[in-house]
Design brief:
Blueprint lengths: L6 E3 L5 H5 L4 E3 L18 E5 L5 E7 L5 E7 L6 H18 L4 E6 L8 E6 L2 E6 L2 H4 L2 H12 L3 E6 L3 H4 L5 E7 L4 E6 L2 E6 L13 H4 L3 H4 L3 E5 L7 H6 L4 E6 L2 H13 L6 E5 L2 H10 L4 E6 L11 H17 L1 E11 L6 H14 L3 E8 L18 E8 L2
Helix pairs in contact: 2-4, 10-11, 11-12
Length: 397
């Protein structure tokens, strides 16, 4: 029987990394004499061969990107059948580890579905497709999700910047059923309303779940400042843990309004207030005003979105952490997070150490956390491990 897929041949030894478990094929690993890239269309599925002709597996390709192809499996096409199978495997993990249907159901390569992200909010599902290969099987994705989860609605939140590099349009639309603007989720026993259409990414960030579950001793009876608060994921949980006062600081008035709604939803509205503005400017103003806090939480956006941004991003992390340290009461707590892949955990700790010395404080690292189990790490792909948080005590001299 003839091979149903076009063939893609690799350069000598290029298959070694693939055989070790890494699913990405870079454009410079392809034998372009045997496999001219102009012969392929974005998203097309191909049969990958080593330079000696031995079949390696099925992949989808985008000839216009650095990560030129992504392996799907040994001998199965990316279709509805495979999607249902892998969604069921992903679902089994989440149902075992989490008490309710609120989690990241699919985390791309780590769940053997490269280019696909699926967040679950009870009866509603938000999908992000980041590659041309996944975009071509969009209808199968929706059908498979409907079969596996039987949701009331599926929202396609396909507006990420990475889609541009894949040659994909940006759009947000309902693919199945009906999806309200706001849906409720539960995290660590705390209720939140998340804005699916207008919010950041899929509307919520499940990744810091484990760290937020540890807020209790750092919050009870304390004055807490939640910087880059978004809709209050950290701050509202701090209030539920008994914080005497919580201030949510964010540049988005819409996010802060939602944060106050979430505070009311959890019965802590009387202890939560907001500050709108640039974190760097507001932190400086608070220091000049003589404000002090017992616990400060920093969960900024990725200051280092690309490798070329490392120098400027590291400086941003240094500045914001030093500004926060200056606002802490004697022996206060700083919880510092980073979702920048290009900032390693050890480098974040070093920034905190150096920052503490610059403001004449001593630092104790108390706890460190990473992403939750609904963001499993692919051991062959360091890029899948991006999240870190460091719980510190900042001591006066």
């Amino acid at each position: 029987m003839a091979d149903p897929f076009p063939e893609l041949f690799l350069n000598p030894n290029a298959e070694r990394r693939l055989r070790s478990g890494h699913p990405w094929i870079y454009s410079n690993e392809i034998d372009t004499k045997k496999s001219p890239l102009k012969n392929y269309t974005p998203g097309q599925q191909v049969q990958v061969h080593a330079s000696n002709g031995k079949a390696i597996g099925i992949a989808y390709i985008n000839p216009h990107t650095l990560i030129c192809a992504r392996l799907i499996g040994r001998d199965h096409a990316l279709d509805k059948s495979l999607l249902v199978h892998r969604l069921n495997i992903a679902l089994a993990l989440r149902e075992r580890l989490f008490p309710g249907p609120f989690y990241r159901l699919v985390y791309g390569d780590s769940d053997a579905l490269p280019g696909l992200v699926v967040d679950r909010f009870g009866d509603y599902v938000v999908v992000q497709i980041n590659t041309a290969g996944m975009e071509l099987v969009l209808d199968d994705i929706v059908t498979a999700l409907t079969q596996v989860l039987k949701p009331r609605g599926i929202l396609l939140k396909n507006d990420s910047r990475v889609r541009e590099s894949e040659g994909l349009d940006s759009y947000v639309k309902v693919a199945f059923g009906e999806v309200p603007e706001q849906v409720e989720l539960i995290e660590n026993g705390c209720r939140f309303l998340a804005p699916l259409y207008s919010g950041q990414k899929t509307g919520w960030f499940y990744d810091h779940r484990n760290a937020r579950a540890q807020l209790g001793p750092y919050s009870k009876g304390r004055r807490v400042l939640d910087v880059f608060s978004y809709i209050g994921g950290w701050g509202i949980q701090a209030a539920l843990h008994g914080a005497s006062e919580v201030t949510l600081l964010d540049s988005s008035a819409q996010a802060l309004e939602m944060g106050l709604r979430n505070a009311e939803l959890n019965g802590v509205g009387d202890r939560v207030k907001t500050l709108e503005g640039s974190a760097f400017d507001v932190l400086k103003e608070l220091h000049e005003q003589g404000e002090r806090f017992d616990t400060i939480i920093l969960d900024p956006p990725a200051f280092i979105p690309r490798r070329k941004d490392i120098k400027a991003g590291v400086e941003a992390y240094r500045r914001v952490n030093e500004l926060a340290m200056r606002l802490l009461n004697r022996d206060g707590f700083l919880i510092s997070g980073s979702c920048s892949l290009h900032l390693e955990r050890a480098q974040l700790v070093e920034l905190l150490r150096a920052g503490s010395r610059h403001v004449d404080r001593q630092l104790q690292v108390l706890e460190q956390h990473g992403q939750g189990a609904d963001h499993p790490v692919h051991p062959a792909i360091p890029e899948t491990e991006y999240l870190k948080s460091v719980f510190c005590r900042v001591l006066a001299p």
